[in-house]
Amino acid sequence: MKHRIEETKDRLVVGIKANMSLQTIQQETGNLARQFMPRRHEISSRLGKHVFSIQDYGELEMKDITARTTFEKWVGVEVSNLDDIPKGMEPFILKAGTYAVFTYKGATQDFPKSRQYIFQDWLPNSDFELDNRAHFEELSENYSKYLQNIEEDVWIPIKGKD
C-alpha cells in the first residue's frame, strides 16, 4: 500500500456528525452521508470537490478503543472560512500536523485488511507513533460503498517516536 508523509495546516470543515462505535460505523456513516451529500451544495465557501469522512476519538488512545467505544464521526467538506454555515451543520477543524497518507484502491469490503496493515504492520515498524488528532479519509464526490474499485486517501495523524 503506497503512502506519503504530509505536513498540513489547520483545515476547516463544515459537515454533520453523529456518535457511533466501530460496531455501528458502516451503517451510521451511510446514514450521515445520506443526510449530508444532498445538502453539500448549500455550503458557499467550499474548497475542492472532495468529501471528508472523519473519525474524532477525542482524548481516547487507539489501544483503548473497543468495538463498543463511541466516538464522533463526521461527513463534511473543506471550506475557506466558517462565516456561513448552513442550518443543521457544524464546523470542525482538522488540526495541523504530520500525517501518514495511504492511498487505498479496491472494494470497500477489503478496506479492513488495509487498515490492519497500517496499524499492525506499518506503524509499529515506522519511525512514528499515533498522534492524538482526528483520523480521516478524503473521498471523491462520487464515492459509493457499492463501487468495487474505489480510491481514497486515508490520513493517519502521526508524530515522531520519543
Provide an overview of this structure.
- With 162 residues, the protein is mostly beta strands.
- It has a single domain (3-160), classed as Alpha-Beta Barrel (Multidrug-efflux Transporter 1 Regulator Bmrr, Chain A).
- The protein has two helices and nine strands, in the order E-E-H-E-E-E-E-H-E-E-E.
- The protein has helices spanning 25-36, 111-122; strands at residues 3-8, 11-20, 51-56, 71-79, 90-94, 97-106, 128-130, 135-139, 150-160.
- Strands 1, 2, 3, 4, 5, 6, 7, 8 and 9 form a nine-stranded antiparallel β-sheet that branches.
Question: What keyword list fits this structure?
Answer:
mainly beta, SmbC-like, GyrI-like, 162 residues, Multidrug-efflux Transporter 1 Regulator Bmrr, Chain A, AraC effector-binding domain-containing protein, Reg_factor_effector_dom_sf
Runs with pLDDT <50, length 5+? none
Main sheet summary: 9 strands, antiparallel
| Discrete helix count | 2
Number of strands: 9
Query: Which CATH architecture?
Result: Alpha-Beta Barrel
Percentage of residues in DSSP E strands: 35-45%
Helix content: 10-25%
Kindly provide the radius of gyration, computed on alpha-carbon positions and rounded to a whole number of angstroms: 15 Å
Q: Determine and state the CATH class.
A: Alpha Beta
> What number of structural domains do the residues give?
1
Average pLDDT over all residues? 89
Q: For the record, what is the CATH homologous superfamily label? A: Regulatory factor, effector binding domain
Order of helices and strands: EEHEEEEHEEE
Any idea of the CATH topology? Multidrug-efflux Transporter 1 Regulator Bmrr, Chain A
Category by helix and strand content: mainly beta
Assembly status: single chain
Taking the alpha carbons of the first and last residues, their distance comes to 26 Å
Q: What shape does the CA trace take?
A: globular
